[in-house]
Write a structure and sequence with these properties.
With 215 residues, the protein is of the alpha+beta class. 16% of the residues lie in helices and 29% in strands. It is built from 3 helices and 14 strands. The chain has a 4-stranded mixed sheet with strand order 9-6-13-10. A 3-stranded mixed sheet has the order 5-12-11, covered by helices on one side. The protein has a 3-stranded antiparallel sheet with strand order 8-7-14. A hairpin with a 5-residue loop joins strand 11 (134-138) and strand 12. The longest helix is centred in the middle third of the chain and has 13 residues, at 107-119. The protein is globular. It starts with 15 loop residues before the first strand and ends in a 13-residue tail after the last helix.
């Protein structure tokens, strides 16, 4: 039997296979799926949907998201400061951008869509580095993030054009500068960035272009 999330709209209704043995529904043409997030069972299978604008509460259900780290031609990493109007961790410095796939949306298409929407960026060389990253964190206001959040690394040759509804500031950092920031002030960074950087370093995500020019 398909997994279900009690109290939420059922998710599995046909569609294409996902990468965890379940099925992703086809996105509708009427926009009904465009502001929904995918809820997950404890074993990571899709089990329901919920409105994106209301899913983050003091009891947020496990849901599907992603994080992306963008690098430029010099190997620098783009950090952004979340808009102060964000519901969770407003004004906090974090990775390049994050987001939530729509039901039935191809994961790579999701990443490209958010890169354009939040930063006006066209990205390439997209790599999935941490496919199973998962975390739960509570912000100072008590709002919970509870996500299965695959982590990507990408490249761009462009400069960001920030969407002020999403991004307050942005800055390119050398990998060594990012490591120093993490060591000196982890409290100033998003909790998922702190956790992800440790695993990204372990996976060698920043080892190909340490601190220096891209060939």
């Amino acid at each position: 039997m398909p997994a279900t999330c009690p109290g939420y709209t059922p998710y599995l209704r046909g569609g294409r296979p996902d990468d965890r043995g379940g099925r992703l529904p086809e996105t509708t043409d009427d926009g009904a799926d465009h502001d929904l997030v995918v809820l997950l069972s404890e074993d990571g299978h899709p089990c329901g949907t919920a409105p994106r604008t209301g899913v983050h509460t003091t009891d947020t259900p496990l849901h599907l998201a992603f994080s992306c780290y963008v690098r430029d031609d010099e190997g620098r990493v783009l950090l952004t400061r979340r808009a102060v109007t964000k519901r969770t961790w407003p004004g906090v410095w974090t990775n390049s951008f994050c987001g939530h796939p729509r039901p039935g949306e191809d994961p790579a298409a999701t990443v490209h869509r958010y890169a354009e929407h939040e930063l006006g960026l066209t990205i390439d060389e997209l790599r999935l580095v941490l496919p199973d990253f998962r975390y739960r964190a509570v912000d100072p206001a008590g709002i919970v993030e509870n996500e299965l959040c695959p982590v990507y690394v990408a490249h761009t040759s462009a400069q960001p054009v920030r969407n002020p509804d999403e991004v307050e500031e942005s800055r390119w950092l050398e990998p060594d500068e990012l490591r120093l920031a993490l060591a000196a002030a982890p409290w100033a960074l998003s909790p998922w960035l702190v956790l992800q950087l440790t695993e990204l370093e372990r996976a060698g995500a920043f080892a190909d272009l340490p601190s220096g020019a891209r060939p």
